[in-house]
Structures are given as structure tokens and as C-alpha cells.
Write a structure and sequence with these properties.
mainly beta, 9-stranded antiparallel sheet, 1 helix
């Protein structure tokens, strides 16, 4: 019999009726409205710092993956609205991965990105001869004081890397090392002092070409903080070496009121449409849903008579005409029956160790995870990216003696919420704290079903011993504050499962579904 290892007021709550799993959108909200229009976001949930590459009739995308590994997810589209996952470009943990740039040069694909650990920062590159890999191991570029690298080829045919703060450096011909030292080339565009912003933070430079000009698209204003801070600016030059002239239409994009549907919009990449229309892809926080992270937004642009571009999508709160192109199936299912022999593409470890994948084994629809650490904070939970305002997930667990297993909403190793068990007793996870601080090892273990519901930032947990009859856990939580402006890290609150202790936890039938 499972008992709650915490103080409870009053009698145990009555069991809820079993709730069948309804068929429906079980992953991301659909952007394609099916009538020639779309509604942002095009990728819901945590998809920040998008970098899009047009490659013939195909588009490829990667994003910041931070402390989640495998990282640098690769997505494929043919219309910029409907996206399919292809895999990941990195498994080796080099730290928290920020602001990548995906490019193709002479038939080879490259991703340039910054990564940071607790005591070190650097910029790296990985490369592949095919977009679906295999990708190389990360190569250090030795640029420890910069973030947000953006690749460019100059009018001289040489390769360059633009960096935060308006600096740039030449790359070797193979793109795997730098030549010389960075130089300053651009001072940025400065907004009025009266605007509410987080900080100036000139970053995310992306270089594109149009009608004989180089265009530098940059983010300023800080990526979070006040909802009116983050913005997109533009400058152009006839030469990759400058001088760079600021657009008279700056800022190209900015949230001007906290009443808008999307906050902190910025960090854009320009991309050419198949039908001649051009677009910006960038990120933003959804009004009232910081905990979902920065979501991927698509904004049409138009070129002015004097050769600049302007955004045409307004506040992105209304449907927009879709780009041309083939609509592929969209999104990625988050539910997992663990039928394969490896980790599904929806899963990522948080801050994995070098041997993290060896913790897992698969057999006949089961995934067994060997315990690590003592709690979610040191056990490298497995997480998935949720893009719905309201959802629930359910998992069945067999907890071996000595182990603790659980289901969570996980932001970081310092902030999470949910419930765990040693098979006989429960442990409450709240605010990134464990109550009690630990569970004694169980000699018997046990079997348990957990259901976690996040209904517009209200967390509820149900437990069951048979998967049919459910009891509501006697503590509910408001998780609306589990986000970057409270805890830092630029992350999102994600569904997660974990295994801690000396034993192992076998997981069956992870099921996710969106709620109305």
C-alpha cells in the first residue's frame, strides 16, 4: 500500500473515475488552419533562437537546446508552417547550447553555436555531409567571450563569423577554426531611453544578401525581462566589412504593449519563400505563459522602395496567409509506448553525464532506467517539450527496491514540481524542494501509475495502483512562476520522468494529451 510521506489534513480523497484517453492533438498546437492561412506559433513550446536554412525546395531548422541532450534538434519543412523532426546534431554535452546558426556551404552543412558551463564559455561548430547526419563531434573555435555566432560569406569569397556586440572574425576555408582575432564592425541601433527593456544586449547577428546588399539582422533589448524589451533591428552594407547603416524602419519588430498576444519578440532569421515572398522566423513568449518558453513565430516581410524590409504580420494575433509549398505532416508525438530499442526522438536528458544513455535498456514495450542521484535535482530527468496551455500525461512505473521514480513538471535542477515514490511511500516535489528531503530505500518496491495535469499553470497529480481507479494527490500547485524571469536559465517547464537511488525504475506507456 502506498502512503503519502507528508502531513495530510482530513481523510483521504475519494478515488476519481477512470478517465479514457481521447483522440486528438497530443503534441503541438497546429499552426496550419487548413484554409490557406496559419496562426502563430508555428512551433509551440520551447523552440527559441530559430535558425532556418532554405535548401532548394526544403527548409531546415535548428534551435537553442540549452541543457537538454541530445541537443540541436533538426526539423524539416517545405512551407515554413508544417515541420517534421529529423533528429539531433549533438549528443556530447559541451554545456548549455545557445543561439545556433545552421548554414550550408559548398555542399556541407554546419551549425555554429555558443555553449556555456558553470565555469567556461566557448563557441563550437558541428558539421555533416547530409542534413540527417551523421554529425561530427563538436569542434571548439576558441571564442570564450562571445555568444550567438552567425556565418557569412563575404564579397571576397572568404568565410566569416559575426558575433555578439557587433564583432566579427574570419574563418578558415574549412569553417572549423578562426583566422586572426575578432574585430569590431557594428555599433548597433539604440532605442529611446524611455522604453522598458531588460538590457541593451546586442546579439544574434544573422547575415543575408538582397539586391547587392548585405543585411545584418540583430536582436537588442534583452531576451526576457519586460515584455516590451526584446526586438529585431536591421542594418546593411555593400561590404561584409562595413560600414553598416541602420535601417530607418528600426525596430523592425517589437512588442509595444503588454496587452499583445506575444511578448519579447526577437532574434530573427530572414528566409526566402518559394513564391518570392520573404519571411522572418523568430521567437516570443506567449502572453500569460512564460512557462512554455520562447515559441517559434513566423512573420511576413516586405521590401520597401528604398531597399529595406519591414514586418507585415502586426502583433501576430490573427491568421496570416500561408507561404507556398508542400504541407508535410506536422509536429512530433510525445506519447511513447517504448516499443523500440532506443530513446525516442521526443526525449532529452537534462545535463547528462558521459554515460547517461547506458542507464537505459528496452524490452517488449518497457524502458528501464537505472537510478542516479537522490532526487530530480541530481538524477538527470528525461524531459519532453510541451506546447499546449493545458495538458496531462500519465505513466506506469515498476519501482525496484532501492529506487525512487516519479513524474514532474521540470524547469531545472533548482526548480521542479511533482510526485515521486519508492513503491511504498510518496515524496512531494515542490519549488525544487523535496518533502520529505528523502525517502528511505524500500525493500519491496512497488507498482504505481502517476497522472500529472498542467491546466493553464495549475498542477494536479493523481495516483493509481491499477491504472483504473485514481486518487487526487492532496496538494495542488500554481506553476505560473516557473520561468526565466524568476529562476534564470532561459528554459521552459517540461513534462519529465526520473529514476533516482540505487535501484531501477521500469516505465510503461507514457501518454500525453492536450486538454480543451
Amino acid at each position: 500500500m502506498l502512503v503519502a510521506c507528508m502531513v495530510m489534513a482530513g481523510p483521504a480523497l475519494a478515488a476519481d473515475a477512470a478517465q479514457p484517453w481521447k483522440r486528438g492533438i497530443e503534441h503541438q498546437r497546429m499552426a496550419d488552419l487548413g484554409n490557406g492561412s496559419f496562426l502563430n506559433p508555428v512551433l509551440s513550446g520551447e523552440h527559441p533562437d530559430p535558425s532556418v536554412l532554405k535548401d532548394g525546395k526544403d527548409y531546415y531548422l535548428t534551435l537553442s537546446s540549452f541543457d537538454a541532450y541530445p541537443g540541436l534538434p533538426i526539423w524539416h519543412s517545405r512551407d515554413l508552417v508544417n515541420w517534421q523532426p529529423l533528429g539531433h546534431a549533438i549528443r556530447t554535452d559541451v554545456g548549455s547550447i545557445w543561439a545556433p546558426d545552421l548554414v550550408k556551404y559548398k555542399g556541407r552543412y554546419y551549425i555554429y553555436f555558443a555553449a556555456r558551463t558553470a565555469d567556461k564559455r566557448d563557441n563550437f561548430v558541428v558539421w555533416a555531409d547530409a542534413i540527417d547526419g551523421p554529425w561530427s563531434e563538436p569542434v571548439s573555435l576558441g571564442l570564450p567571450t562571445y555568444i550567438d555566432p552567425g556565418h557569412a560569406v563575404g564579397e571576397d569569397g572568404k568565410r566569416y563569423l559575426f558575433l555578439s556586440g557587433g564583432d566579427y572574425v574570419q574563418l578558415a576555408a574549412d569553417g572549423l577554426s578562426v583566422v586572426g582575432t575578432p574585430k569590431h564592425v557594428y555599433d548597433g541601433w539604440h532605442y529611446p531611453e524611455s522604453w522598458d527593456v531588460e538590457s541593451y544586449s546586442q546579439e544574434g547577428p544573422k547575415i543575408s544578401r538582397h539586391d547587392g546588399w548585405f543585411y545584418m539582422t540583430t536582436a537588442v533589448g534583452g531576451t526576457a525581462g519586460p515584455p516590451t524589451g526584446h526586438m529585431v533591428i536591421s542594418a546593411r552594407s555593400r561590404s561584409i566589412h562595413g560600414p553598416w547603416q541602420n535601417s530607418p524602419y528600426n525596430p523592425i519588430v517589437r512588442t509595444v504593449s503588454r496587452d499583445e498576444p506575444w511578448w519579447s519578440r526577437g532574434h530573427a532569421t530572414l528566409v526566402e519563400g518559394i513564391d518570392g515572398r520573404d519571411w522572418m522566423v523568430y521567437h516570443g513568449y506567449e502572453n500569460g505563459y512564460y512557462m512554455l518558453g520562447r515559441q517559434m513565430l513566423l512573420d511576413p516581410i516586405a521590401w520597401t522602395a528604398d531597399g529595406w524590409f519591414v514586418a507585415k504580420g502586426g502583433d501576430l494575433g490573427q491568421p496570416l496567409a500561408k507561404p507556398a509549398g508542400e504541407a508535410l505532416p506536422h509536429g512530433m508525438a510525445l506519447s511513447d509506448g517504448f516499443a523500440g530499442d532506443r530513446l525516442g526522438p521526443q526525449w532529452s536528458f537534462f545535463k547528462p553525464g558521459p554515460d547517461e544513455y547506458q542507464r537505459l535498456s528496452f524490452s517488449d514495450g518497457d524502458m528501464t532506467m537505472r537510478g542516479k542521484g537522490h532526487s530530480p535535482s541530481d538524477s538527470s530527468p528525461l524531459t519532453v517539450i510541451a506546447g499546449d496551455r493545458a495538458y496531462e500525461f500519465e505513466v506506469e512505473m515498476e519501482i525496484a527496491p532501492g529506487a525512487t521514480g516519479g513524474a514532474l513538471l521540470f524547469y531545472s535542477d533548482r526548480l521542479y514540481a511533482g510526485v515521486g515514490s519508492n513503491g511504498e511511500q510518496f515524496i512531494l516535489h515542490r519549488y525544487g524542494e523535496d518533502r520529505p528531503t528523502s525517502l528511505p530505500p524500500s525493500r519491496k518496491g512497488g507498482k504505481l501509475w502517476l497522472r500529472v495535469t498542467n491546466n493553464r499553470n495549475i498542477l494536479t497529480v493523481h495516483t493509481s495502483q491499477d491504472g483504473k481507479h485514481w486518487q487526487k494527490y492532496p496538494v495542488q500547485m500554481d506553476v505560473s512562476g516557473y520561468h526565466h524571469n524568476v529562476a534564470g536559465g532561459f528554459l521552459a517547464l517540461k513534462p519529465a520522468i526520473y529514476a533516482a537511488g540505487t535501484g531501477a525504475v521500469t516505465f510503461h506507456h507514457f501518454r500525453y494529451r492536450a486538454l480543451d
